[in-house]
Amino acid sequence: MKRIFYLISVVFYAMMMEAQDMYLKMETDTWSDKYTYYNYDEDWKLESIIVVYTNDTLETRLYSNDTLVKKVIGNSSRRYYYQGDSVLYFQKEPNGSYYLSHVYYLNENNEVTHDNKCNAEGNYTYTINHFWENGNCVKASYENISESHFFYNKTIVNPYYNENKYFKKSFSGSNNIFNFADFEYFTKAQIVLSSKNGYPLEVDFYSSEGYSNLLLYEYYDLTDVNDAIMDDIGELLEIRYYNLFGQEIQKPAKGFFIEKKKKKKRDDK
Questions:
Q1: Cβ count within 10 A of residue 235
Q2: Residue 124: half-sphere exposure toward Cβ, Cα within 13 Å
Q3: Can you tell me the distance from the alpha carbon of 236 to that of 263, in angstroms, rounded to the nearest whole number?
Q4: Which of 49, 27, 21, 83 is nearest to 164 (CA)?
C-alpha cells in the first residue's frame, strides 16, 4: 500500500513539474550587446528582470508573486496596479508625481483585450483592441484605423510568457513564439534555429526596416530533477540535498530544494 501511495505521489509531482520545467535565466541580444537577467526566489517566483547594455543598467522590472509591479528605466519610473479585470499603469513625471498613462482591460485568462491610452489630464486619447485565439494574440487594432497581425510557431514556447502570464500584452504575452508579425507599415520575422524541451535556444530575428539579430536564451533547467524523481525504485543507499542552483546543502528544515536519492538498482549485486 505504501509503495502504491509513493508511486501516486511521484506521478503527481512529475505532472506538477512538467507544467513548467524551463525558467528563463538570461537573454543575449548579440547585435546590441544587451543582456537581460532573470532572478527568482526559492519557489521559482519571478522577483526581478535586469536589462544591461555594456555594463550599464538600462531597465529594472520588479515583480511580486510573479506579477509585474514596477519598471525603472533610467530616471523614469512606472507602476502597475491590478484591479481585477484591469491594470492601471502610472508614469512618473519630472516633478516626482505620477499620472495615469494607460488602462489595460483583461479577460479571464489575463489577456489584454483593449488598452486605453490616457493623457496627463486622465482623458482617453486612443484605444488598441487585441484579439486572442488559443492563448496567442492574433490581431491588434488601433482605433479601427490600422491593424497588426501575428502568426505563431505552434510547437515552440514564447520565452517571455512566464514574465507576462498575469498581464498578457500582445505577442509578448502569448503562449507561443511568433514566426511573423505584420505591423502594416513594417514586418518582423523570427526563425528558431535550435530549441530544448520546446523552448528556443537560438532565434534569428529580422525586421523589414533593415534590422537583423541573433537572440540567445539560457534557462534554469529542472528537467534533471524530474528524471531523478522518476528513477527506478530500489534500495535506498544515500540522500543528498541541493539548492535550486545545483549547490549541495544540508537538509533544509523548510523551503524549496532538490532531493537526490541514490538507490540500488534491481540488477545491482
A1: 10
A2: 10
A3: 4
A4: 49
DSSP classification of residue 55: T
Q: What is the pLDDT of residues 158-191, one digit of tens each?
A: 999 999 999 999 999 999 999 999 998 899 999 9
Q: Name the residue among 228, 238, 225 with its Cα closest to residue 264.
A: 238
The one-letter amino acid at 75:
N
How many whole angstroms separate alpha carbon 186 and alpha carbon 121? 32
d(Cα 208, Cα 189) in Å, to the nearest integer?
9
Question: Which grid cell sits at 8?
Answer: 501516486
Dihedral sign computed on CA atoms, order 209, 159, 85, 76:
negative
**pLDDT one-digit tens code per residue, 76-128:** 899 999 998 999 999 988 788 889 999 999 999 999 999 999 987 778 888 99
Q: What angle do CA 75, 79, 85 make, to 5 degrees?
A: 160
Cell 543582456, residue? 35
112 - beta bridge partners?
106
- Could you tell me how far CA 125 lies from the centroid of its own chain? 30
**Which amino acid, residue 55?**
N
Look up residue 72 and give its three cell numbers.
525603472
For residue 214, give Cα distances in angstroms to 37, 178, 198, 202. Answer: 17, 15, 18, 7
In whole angstroms, what separates CA 142 from the centre of its chain?
Answer: 26
Q: State which amino acid sits at residue 183.
A: F
Model-wide pTM > 0.85: no
